[in-house]
User: What shape does this take?
Amino acid sequence: MLSCQIQCPLVPILQPFATLLCRTPTPAVHTKLLGSVYKPIISALTIALAPSHSTDYPSIVSGSCTEDEGSEETASPGQVRNALLKSLFITAAEAESVESNRRRVYNYWREEGGDDDEEEDEE
Assistant: This one.
């Protein structure tokens, strides 16, 4: 294993899935994408926040960043998780999103603790 590893920009890589998730007219596609792509990754990132963690996706947890440039700076699992949730929220807010999918994404965002107040706290 190389000691100098370029981090994977997880948010931009998953953006096409977020777009499909929010714009698909088919409920089965929405359910499958949310359950097979987003829930496992966000769950793994959430588990990684615990002091003693064991996740099914160690490479994703340790090798992800939030930027789309091949950054060598590692982002914490919490930063990547929040960036993914924010990306889902922003994509669902687009005018092209199907209303029922928008509501489902917003509900998932709330269940996972997505919070607008984080940005206000940082300022």
